[in-house]
Write a structure and sequence with these properties.
Helix content is 34%, strand content 33%. The N terminus is likely disordered. With 247 residues, it is an alpha+beta fold. Helix 1 packs across helix 2. An eleven-stranded antiparallel β-sheet has the order 1-5-4-3-2-6-7-8-9-10-11. A hairpin with a 3-residue loop joins strand 8 and strand 9.
């Protein structure tokens, strides 16, 4: 019996027990249910274990790496519409690829997950989503996995984390430096826009030029010290203005 068929059988049986039992917390219930599936099917047989072994072909400079975070972190992931909780994850932002390592023995090798099969995942309480359909509709603007920073009724903000690989010759050996980059993407009226400056926001929201100008003038210090938080705060304010004007 294939893995997904086994999970369907276990789901039917276990859901029957859940209907009889009144479990207090829905979030705990979901997590426990998925953990039960994993144990029942066998962790070695899960679909998430199918992939290419991760390798490091680029010799990095000391203190440099190609990842969002250099170490594995426990997180949750939806892969092929199946949710796996408390698994070891790492995000390669050079190649836009999620790396999974099975819990347990140190001999377990990390695996490159197939990006097209990744739906979303959490690392350090931050949610990353694979904008699959959007990548097809807006190939010049959207590609791959984004941090879902803020989702509003009218406007939402996404962050693209990436790194650029740069060769560096040291002691007759080629090493690589990895330059960290961040791009901000705004979703408004089902379109996506790259935003970086005050001018970008005013172009998208010409009716709120005064409010945007005021926000930039007031929070310049935050813009310099924490650009991501600044962009999130601005997006929230614009969402509030749009919501207010629609009432």
């Amino acid at each position: 019996m294939k893995n997904y068929q086994k999970k369907i059988v276990y789901l039917s049986i276990f859901t029957g027990f859940l209907n009889i039992s009144h479990i207090h917390s829905q979030s705990v219930e979901k997590s426990s249910l998925y953990d039960y599936f994993d144990e029942a099917v066998g962790k070695d047989n899960l679909n998430i274990n199918n992939g290419i072994v991760h390798s490091e072909p680029f010799r990095p400079l000391a203190g440099k790496n190609r990842y969002y975070l250099d170490e594995f972190n426990l997180g949750d992931i939806s892969y092929e519409n199946q949710i796996y909780t408390k698994v070891n994850l790492k995000y390669d932002i050079l190649l836009d690829q999620v790396i999974y390592k099975q819990n347990g023995s140190s001999e377990n090798l990390p695996i490159n997950l197939i990006t097209e099969k990744v739906d979303y995942f959490f690392i350090k309480n931050k949610k990353f989503v694979n904008l699959k359909e959007e990548s097809i509709k807006f190939p010049s603007t959207i590609k791959g996995i984004y941090e879902e920073t803020y989702v509003g009724d009218n406007v939402s903000l996404y962050i693209k984390h990436s790194k650029e690989k740069v060769k560096s010759l040291q002691a007759d050996l080629i090493h690589y430096n990895f330059i960290y980059k961040i791009n901000y993407i705004l979703k408004y009226n089902n379109f996506f826009y790259k935003v970086e400056t005050e001018r970008d926001f005013k172009k998208i929201f010409p009716n709120y030029k005064k409010e945007i100008n005021s926000f930039y003038s007031t929070d310049k210090k935050l813009e310099r010290s924490n650009k991501a938080q600044f962009m999130e705060n601005l997006t929230k304010q614009i969402n509030g203005l749009l919501k207010k004007s629609s009432n």
